[in-house]
Design goal:
The chain is mainly alpha-helical. Helix content is 77%, strand content 0%. 23% of the residues are buried.
């Protein structure tokens, strides 16, 4: 749990620049951490951004959104 909390500031640094090649991956990682912490509203926001960006993680994001909607 502590490691995940420690990861968030690093992910936020990446998320400051949409041109960062790891932007989508950082969005995904942060969304998963937030979902695990039951911060589902914030997680959904990040997952929806991933879907809108339409990259490699779009389908993963859609699947995770479906899971969150079941809870």
């Amino acid at each position: 749990e502590g490691q995940k909390d420690a990861a968030i500031p690093h992910l936020d640094t990446i998320l400051k620049k949409k041109s960062n090649p790891y932007y989508d991956l950082a969005l995904w990682q942060k969304a998963i951490i937030l979902a695990e912490k039951k911060q589902t509203t914030e997680a959904r926001t990040l997952l929806n951004e991933l879907v809108d960006r339409g990259g490699n993680l779009k389908n993963n994001a859609l699947q995770k959104l479906e899971e969150l909607n079941k809870d």
